[in-house]
Amino acid sequence: MTSEVLHAKLKENFGFEKFRPNQETIINTILSGQDTLAIMPTGGGKSICFQLPALVLPGITIVISPLIALMKDQVDSLKTNGISACYINSSQSSEEQQFYIDNLKSNTFKLVYIAPESLSYLDVVFNELTVSLIAIDEAHCISSWGHDFRPAYTNLGYLKSRFPSTPVLALTATADKATRTDITKQLKLRNPKTFVASFDRKNLSLEVRPALDRVKQIIDFVEKKPNESGIIYCLSRKTTEELALKLQKSGVTAKAYHAGLDNKIRAKTQDEFINDDCQVVCATIAFGMGIDKSNVRWVIHYNLPKNIEGYYQEIGRAGRDGLPAETVLFESYADVIQLQKFASEGLNSDVQLAKLERMKQYADALSCRRKILLSYFGELVKENCGNCDICKNPPTFFDGTILAQKALSAISRLQESEPLAVIVDFLRGSRNAYIYEKNYQSLKTYGIGADISWYDWNQYLIQLINLGYCEIAFHQHNKILLTPFAKKVLFEGENVKLNTVVKKVIDKNEIKETKTKAAKSSLFEILRKLRYEIAQDEEVPAYVIFSDASLRQMETLRPMSDEEFLAIDGVGNAKLEKYGQEFIDAIVYYENAKKKKAKSKKEGNTYKTTLELFQSGISVKEIAVQRNLGLTTIISHLAKLYVDGNDIDLSQFVSDDEVMLLHKAQIDLEYPTALKPYFDHFDEKLSYDKIRLGLAIVERNK
Ligand code: ADP
Ligand code: ZN
């Protein structure tokens, strides 16, 4: 199919203007009848790769997916785009399942989503179906190498035997080579064409912060983002609950999510998050797998993740719509210690420890973080990314030799028997119970680093650990030991370069500003509310109606006709028809209100100018000439200015008697709004100017 035709289909049915990397070639390969293996990062746009061919091909497309919760979402999404699809899984009653199976035969559906466990239900209708494409989502579930092994996936190979001439598309975000080979083999793919998309997600900013005061840092962070959905990953169930509570106390709708909670509660939290009713979810890793929410605007890691794979998958849940999204990872030594303990006690401890070490290296990095991430996935990039904390704030070094000497000698004075916090207290000369109990205050170098803050000392010591001058004895209460390299600094004058500690200063004013800005109804907020209302009505998640990216574009381009609306990315024919008018109305209304406001502001100014000129003693005629306005206009300005209570004398224009007569006429004529009835009443003997100004005086005297 020509590129033009494919692009037209993409726009008509899904509303998108362009293909994302690899989508078009994958689609072409499938349409040519070839088996395909597509490896794309989360948010890379895998669904289009089978949804678009499904529309073009004559028969039905079977989509195998392990994520039952996601099926409804995907089917809802397709339906809002006017595409007929259904799903069959154990969440439905057997009558319901039977209903859809019966209807498959009548060829009403272009796509059917089915869980591998339920696939056998289809056996009875297979003979009657024209199956044009088989898509296997989350294909890594077939491999026991992978992290989400699903036994039901191992049977899927029979699909290829059953439909030998139907192309199979296997999709996954797992890049690892062993898994890839396993997928091909077990699905019995024939000579599959493999596509590996770049794992780079440029719209995700990357940042690592020291974990000191992290709760406060998180609250400040969230306060700056009212209405923006985010996920906070925590290591323990307890932390998710405590953190959610703290956020609630500072007015954020936050909920905890972990495997220990009742199923119903978990499902409810997930729904609320998906539907934009709950802003923040504090979750263990169990959260996020089964959701497709495209407007997650940020992801925070409260604790260091176990490995880079998990970390990348989790941050990948932010910004699927392609708009900028933020990620922040908090690094704490306590976490490293705990994770090292878990890893060394678990299965495969060598591998797990090595993976953790890579994770730690990433967090400690002093060069572009994205380069490190991508190189982990085998992608080499030349340029620095410009969207990570290191690129934005390159580290600056200083001669830290004396600092290093002070710290290392403190460790030595304390006989290499104390953990980091005590060393810092010792250096700073803290007068706490523990120091006195141990009589450390009487040691020679006690308080030698009192001029440096607690926070900074922590950071310097961590740097010294990273540089290899000292180390943490994880199995001995985390006491800090010196390494042989320490000697070089202490006795041989080796120079140590340290990295300047930059502490994020949170600007309260900035928070206030963002809050007031968000409270003011921007067009985006108005459109967001409209989207939310429609979504509630239709019982689908808000992002299924339009993505944040589409709303942002509407805000910028302000489409006010069907044609302009259709030009928005994400608006296809079905969505134009269904939602176009409502959104266009909202935009038109907003624009008119804005114009009105601008006009009244301008008018406010014109009155003011007249008033100033008049008060400075210039005659009405003169003002009219100067301002290039009609005399009547100036008179009507004066009338309004007078009614509004301004200090002007109108006696030169209209006498007290005339005012009295006008007042009487007003009653006799039963309060006409126009001036002509007065003019006629006085037999054209009282000028319009006099009538206008006289009535102003009557009005103000009331
Ligand atoms: P994945 O399954 O790879 O994580 P999805 O198929 O869910 O990704 O797509 C992620 C998001 O990107 C969805 O919101 C989808 O609508 C959007 N998307 C997919 N393809 C395009 C495209 N060509 N242009 C714009 N948005 C797209
Ligand atoms: Zn970078």
From TrEMBL:
One of its GO terms (molecular function) is hydrolase activity. GO terms for biological process: DNA recombination; DNA repair; DNA replication; SOS response. Residues 517-597 form the HRDC domain. GO terms for cellular component: bacterial nucleoid; cytoplasm; replisome. It comes from the Bacteria. It holds the Pfam family Helicase_C. Residues 27-193 form the Helicase ATP-binding domain. It catalyses: Couples ATP hydrolysis with the unwinding of duplex DNA by translocating in the 3'-5' direction. InterPro entries: DEAD/DEAH_box_helicase_dom (IPR011545), DNA_helicase_ATP-dep_RecQ (IPR004589), DNA_helicase_ATP-dep_RecQ_bac (IPR006293), Helicase_ATP-bd (IPR014001), Helicase_C-like (IPR001650), Helicase_HTH (IPR029491), HRDC-like_sf (IPR010997), HRDC_dom (IPR002121). It is an enzyme of class 5 (isomerase). Gene3D superfamilies: HRDC domain, P-loop containing nucleotide triphosphate hydrolases, Winged helix-like DNA-binding domain superfamily/Winged helix DNA-binding domain. Its cofactor is Mg(2+); Zn(2+). Residues 214-362 form the Helicase C-terminal domain. Its EC number is 5.6.2.4. Keywords: ATP-binding, DNA damage, DNA recombination, DNA repair, DNA-binding, Helicase, Hydrolase, Isomerase, Metal-binding, Nucleotide-binding, Zinc. Belongs to the helicase family. RecQ subfamily. This is DNA helicase RecQ. The lineage of its organism: Bacteria, Pseudomonadati, Bacteroidota, Flavobacteriia, Flavobacteriales.
